[in-house]
Each structure stands twice: as C-alpha cells, then as structure tokens.
Amino acid sequence: ANQGQKIPVFEILTAVTFILFSEHPAEAAIIEVGLGGRFDATNVISRPAVSVIMPVSMDHEAYLGDRVELIAAEKAGIMKRGCPVVIGAQESETALEVLIETAERLDCPTLVYGQDFLAFEENGRMVYQDEDGLMDLPLPRLPGRHQFANAAAAIAAVKAAGFEISHRAAEKAMTSTAWPARMQKLTQGRLVELAPKGAEIWLDGGHNPGAGVVIAEALAEQEEKNPRPLILIAGMINTKDQTGYFSAFKGLARHVYTVPVSKSDAGVPNDELALRATEAGLSAEPVNSVADALMLLRDSWDGPAPRILIGGSLYFAGAVLDENGTPPT
User: Fold this and answer.
1) pLDDT tens digits for the chain (329 residues)?
2) Taken in order 19, 21, 25, 29, is the CA torsion positive or negative?
3) What is the CATH number of the domain that holds 294?
4) Cβ distance 293 to 259 under 8 Å?
5) Is residue 4 part of a domain?
6) Sign of the C-alpha dihedral computed for residues 213, 219, 223 and 229 taken in this order
7) Domain-embedded: residue 154
8) Pair 84, 168 in one domain
9) Per the domain annotation, does 283 fall within a domain?
C-alpha cells in the first residue's frame, strides 16, 4: 500500500493493530492517537462511536505548532461530522474554544467537562455528575487529583458511545484500574532494592510541562499526607521541553539526578539534562544510570526516608520497569 516508500514504525504498528482488531472483533476498540490527530495514522475511522480529547498542552511543537490553539486544532482533527465528542478538562480557555468551535462546525453532539459533566470529592468519595444525575463512587485508585477529571471523561465517553454503565461497573473501574508508568508506585524489584531503606518510589512517564504540573501536584498531595524529601531521577528525549518539565518541581524537589535514556536514540545526554534542570532552578547532577543514582542516594542519605520520582519519558519509564524486573503484565 505504501508503494515502497519509507514508512514510520508507528504507521506499521497501527496497520498491524487494525488487522488484528479486524480478526478479533470486540464490543469496543479504544484507539489512541500517536501524535496530534488530524494527520495521525490512527485517524482513519470514519464513524467513531465517540471521539475523546483530553487536556491539550504544549508538546510536539515542531509538528503541531508553537501555540496551544494550533495544537488544539490538530487534536480536533479526530472529530467526525455528526459523531459524539467528549472534551476533557482543559487548562487553556483558548484550546477549549477551538475544540468547541470545531465540534459545533461539524454538528457533533458534544459533552464538555465542567459544563455537561464533572467529578468532585465529597466525604471521601468521588461524585460523578451529568444530565442523568449523580453517581456516588469510590475514589479513583490512580493517585493524583487529575484522575477525577480523567475518570469523569471516561464515564462520559462510554455513555456517549451508547453503552449503559451500571453503578457496579463504575465502582469496579474506580478501584481496579491500573496504569503502568503513570504515578506507579514501585514496591519491589532490583532497582527498588538499591534505594535508601524505607524510600517511597514513584514512576511516571510524563514528559512535557503539562505533565510535569499534574505530577508535581500529585506529589504535593502525597507530601501533605506524609511529608518526605523529594528526589528526582530523570531521563528525557530531545523533542521535549526539558526546562519546562523541571520547572513544575521548583520548590518541591530537593535534588535531581539526570541519567541517559537507553531505549531511545533521541535521549538527551545526562550532563545536558542536568543543565536544563539547573535552568529551572533545581539542584542537579548527571549520573550514568538509575541504579547509580539510587546507590549514590543510599550511600549519602541522612535523614527521613525520601520520596523518589523516576520519570521524564515513556521510553525511560519502560526501560526502568524492565531493569527493575517488573514489566507490565
């Protein structure tokens, strides 16, 4: 089909995905965009049951544009005329306007977070609300305040796609959902054993300024519940705004160890990444590996057991899970 021309790995994987999905029919197929939306390899579904657009922030600027409204316009490219659209919580009013305008132009039935549906905490529970009423649910198992809005968007999307959700199903989703490398707590494994005794270790593959903010907020919540010094071990690739990512942790992280990303040719050298962290106002030093960072920390640590965030890239997070001996199952 590609007539011998060059083809990116993502497009090959996407083609294989659609072949496999066609051979193994399911009640619902969840297709996640790789980059942007409008020109993405996944964007060939002419009548999606629902299109979902989550928070839009600055990322992939070289391909999607250097303003949030341009990125939002690319994301809006997955909307199809007359098909339902769910718009998750948006930090940017400009992005929200672009998304709503596009949905209106395409006559899409549209549900907007904070307008048509929302979620909030009440008495240690999560309450989901839409035009059908309220659902009183357990708190999301995934840590971080942003998971309330994520859970709400998921419920709204499944309903908009035409499925009925029983209260029991929604409760099970809140309490059983697992998401590797998204605020994943590491409690065992080869790397964990190298950390200072009693350390709390989190792994998150978030890699842009927007992700940095929600990760920092989630860690600040943990800090309120159980104060500990925060240490970052970071690896990033060169297509990301490294200084912007680190800026979210100013005043929260005590120190940063920067390491190479072994699973990507685009990894930022550890000494250069340390400079980016320093530019963001953090104390930073380059080391050769996550294992080295943990051992350095263990040998020099004096004080309450630290809270450690390992992150900055999904490539990096995958390599960490592999090295720790705890890959996703």
Assistant:
1) 789 999 988 999 999 999 999 999 999 999 999 888 999 999 999 999 999 999 987 555 555 656 889 999 999 999 999 999 999 999 889 999 999 999 999 999 999 999 999 999 999 999 999 999 999 999 999 988 889 999 999 999 999 999 999 999 999 999 999 999 999 999 999 999 999 999 999 999 998 888 899 899 999 989 998 999 999 999 999 988 899 999 999 999 999 999 999 877 889 999 999 999 999 999 999 999 999 999 999 999 988 999 999 999 999 999 999 999 999 87
2) negative
3) 3.90.190.20
4) yes
5) no
6) negative
7) yes
8) yes
9) yes
Do the Cβ atoms of 128 and 170 come closer than 8 Å?
A: yes
Label the pairing between strands 184-186 and 117-122.
Answer: unpaired
Instruction: Output the domain CATH number for residue 69.
Output: 3.40.1190.10
Residue 238 and residue 213 share a domain:
yes
Q: Which two tokens stand for residue 273?
A: 């990444």
Segments forming the whole domain that contains residue 308: 184-324
Among the candidates 150, 176, 202, a domain finishes at 176
Q: Any idea what DSSP says for residue 288?
A: S
Q: How many CA atoms lie within 13 A of 63 on its CB side?
A: 13
Residue 313's nearest CA partner among 59, 74, 95, 142 is 59
- CA 53 – CA 33 distance, rounded (Å): 10
Q: Please state the domain count of the chain.
A: 2
Contact, 112 vs 105, CB < 8 A?
A: no
> Is 3 a domain residue?
no
Same domain, 105 and 204: no
**What does the alpha-carbon distance between residue 236 and residue 60 come to, in Å, rounded to a whole number?**
14
Q: How many angstroms separate the first and last alpha carbons of the chain?
A: 34
DSSP assignment letter at 138: P
